[in-house]
Amino acid sequence: MSNPFEYYPNIYRQPQPTTPHQGQQTGQGQGLAASSGGMISQQGQVTATPGLFEQSYVENILRSNRGKIATVYMTFTGHQQQVFVGYVMGAGRDHIVLRDVNTTKTYILLTIYLDYVTFDEEIALPYQL
Question: Is the CB of residue 97 less than 8 Å from the CB of residue 110?
């Protein structure tokens, strides 16, 4: 099967970042979000969020590589390792959405069982090394 993004180019669009409207709280006692990614205090001072751009998570790397073929290795409780090969459709904190390369089957794989992921091509990273 060919890349599903060729048939459905807008099906998994990148969500646009949202910022609260002026006067809207992001959380109790936290203040407003600044365009730099920091927070605006009640006094109007912008404070940086430490490590905001230095954190790297599997979900962010997978999201940056949507549409590429990945080989996902997983070990489920009490079982041998299983291998899934497919197009990366999306990823979240606790899951990976993978579309099988040979069938129309789509898998939602829980990252709690994830061993590792490989790509046969250059990958995009959401941060600079």
Answer: no
